């Protein structure tokens, strides 16, 4: 058909941890999915496989992108780029572990890095016999040494020590690379995996243990984009979680302006946090604030504090809560945390019907497919006006059902949301009391509910767990027009 039905599988150290939805009939898929993965401290690599889903038979692997831990952590703000897909050959996939001991003794001049290659296990079979002829190649600062070849085994035992002389000033930012290869008497040797160690992590005490072998990391240049490229944003955040008492001073500092409102408003921790957070970090900060204050039973006072500060800065009511301020982001995250079951209750029946009916809807004459319209019509060719008319009726029907569901859901709306919006309305009335601004009290609430809650969920139901799969092209267009 000239297209694919692509989806992604995410693996961490060869363990599947996530799968995206399938985007049907597309060579330029957009997933827009975000995962927060809890990783072990010693994880080694993250690999994303792109596959083509087949209704009959096994799914085809299109390509993969591999990122090592070092590659991700080397970017303080994370990896954010297009990465070329590497071909996936089942016979060349990396597996197994290597047993190493690394040491830089304190005594001696010059200092020497000792790499004790003990053994490896469960290596990939590369020969017809179902085994390999493995040897290890160790590189450091442009120098390379190799072990002996152990014939016909996937569990080689070398017990060899390779030594590298370290120049003055090292280790610095240098890296020790250990690669395992399958030796072939004819042709090129086959790669079996690798592992890297920054020299500054190798202390006087030996670094010893089993380490998982990894593939070569992907780059933006390799393979010339022949298989396409995958846009990834990957950020590694290492959190050390302490016992609850350690966080109590921070919680007291954050909640102080809520519990003791008599303080100068500009000198509080929340006020300072509001000033220093940038657009990139504001959503993360808002999410964490909402969760902290929900845990303390103070979410509504937090929103009241932040929105009151923004109201005090606003002179034109038409711009109220339109920016991605900390107040706006906090209300948005608050609705997502406490209102998701309510959102499902209101929207899911209509969204499911839109997905099932797959009606053709288009209002833009430049995007109309009249040939498609003829196929769905029992009266022959349809004009642009007829298509617009039928599309408008469908949209009105769907939108009417959505509005009726929202209006009839007052009792189902979480009490804490209703309390928060009641307080917001009161604050807006106090800030803009004149008759000419009477409608602002309603716009301020509907702006949050519709523009930041219901409309995004209608546009991309998958991201709000309303559907397991993304919409196809036709349904996606219907959802876009409804959201607008």
3D structure, described in words:
- This protein has 484 residues and is an alpha+beta fold.
- The protein is built from 11 helices and 14 strands.
- A 4-stranded antiparallel β-sheet has the order 2-1-3-4. Strands 10-7-6-13 form a 4-stranded antiparallel β-sheet, with no helix packed on it. The protein has a 4-stranded antiparallel β-sheet with strand order 9-8-11-12, with no helix packed on it.
- Helix 4 (279-295) packs across helix 6 (326-357) and helix 5 crosses helix 6.
- The protein is flat, with a radius of gyration of 29 Å.
Annotation field: number of helices: 11
Give helix % range.
25-40%
Residue-averaged pLDDT, rounded? 85
Low-confidence stretches: 373-380
Report on the biggest sheet: 4 strands, antiparallel
Measured distance between first and last alpha carbons: 32 Å
Question: Largest sheet, order of strands side by side?
Answer: 2-1-3-4
> What amount of the residues lies in strands?
15-25%
User: What's the gyration radius in Å?
Assistant: 29 Å
What is the N-to-C succession of helices and strands?
A: EEEEHEEEEEEEEEEHHHHHHHHHH
Number of E-type strands: 14
> Structural class given helices, strands, pairing?
alpha+beta
Q: What would the principal axes of the Cα set say about the shape?
A: flat
């Amino acid at each position: 058909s000239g297209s694919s039905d692509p989806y992604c599988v995410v693996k961490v150290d060869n363990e599947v941890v996530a799968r995206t939805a399938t985007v049907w009939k597309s060579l330029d898929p957009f997933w827009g999915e975000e995962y927060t993965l809890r990783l072990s401290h010693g994880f080694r690599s993250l690999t994303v496989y792109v596959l083509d889903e087949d209704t009959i038979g096994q799914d085809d692997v299109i390509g993969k992108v591999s990122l090592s831990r070092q590659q991700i952590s080397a970017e303080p703000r994370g990896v954010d780029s297009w990465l070329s897909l590497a071909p996936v050959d089942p016979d060349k996939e990396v597996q197994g572990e290597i047993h190493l001991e690394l040491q830089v003794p304190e005594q001696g001049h010059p200092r020497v890095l000792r790499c004790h290659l003990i053994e490896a296990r469960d290596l990939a079979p590369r020969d017809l016999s179902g085994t390999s002829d493995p040897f290890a190649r160790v590189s450091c600062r442009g120098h390379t040494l190799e072990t002996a070849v152990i014939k016909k085994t996937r569990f080689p035992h070398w017990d060899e020590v390779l030594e590298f002389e370290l120049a003055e000033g090292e280790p610095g930012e240098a890296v020790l690379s250990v690669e395992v290869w399958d030796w072939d008497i004819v042709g090129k040797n086959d790669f079996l995996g690798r592992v890297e160690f920054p020299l500054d992590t190798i202390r006087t005490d030996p670094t010893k243990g089993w380490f998982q072998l990894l593939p070569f990391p992907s780059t933006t240049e390799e393979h010339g984009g022949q298989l396409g490229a995958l846009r990834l944003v990957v950020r590694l955040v290492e959190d050390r979680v302490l016992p609850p008492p350690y966080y109590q001073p921070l919680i007291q500092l954050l909640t102080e302006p809520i519990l003791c409102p008599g303080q100068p408003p500009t000198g509080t921790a929340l006020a300072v946090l509001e000033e220093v957070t940038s657009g990139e970090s504001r959503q993360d900060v808002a999410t964490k604030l909402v969760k902290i204050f929900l845990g303390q039973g103070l979410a509504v006072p937090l929103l009241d504090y932040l929105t009151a500060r923004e109201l005090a800065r606003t002179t034109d009511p038409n711009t109220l809560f339109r920016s991605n301020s900390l107040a706006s982001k906090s209300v948005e995250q608050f609705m997502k945390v406490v209102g998701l079951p309510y959102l499902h209750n209101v929207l899911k029946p209509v969204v499911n019907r839109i997905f099932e009916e797959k009606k053709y809807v288009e209002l833009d004459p430049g995007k109309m497919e009249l040939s498609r319209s003829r196929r769905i019509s029992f009266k022959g060719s349809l004009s642009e006006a007829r298509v617009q008319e039928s599309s408008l009726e469908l949209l009105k029907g769907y939108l009417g059902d959505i509005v009726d569901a929202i209006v009839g859901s007052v009792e189902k709306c979480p009490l804490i949301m209703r309390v928060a919006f009641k307080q917001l309305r009161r604050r807006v009335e106090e800030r803009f009391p004149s008759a000419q601004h009477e409608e602002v009290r309603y716009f301020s609430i509907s702006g949050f509910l519709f523009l930041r809650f219901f409309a995004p969920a209608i546009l991309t139901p998958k991201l709000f767990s309303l559907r397991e799969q993304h919409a196809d092209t036709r349904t996606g267009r219907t959802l876009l027009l409804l959201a607008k």
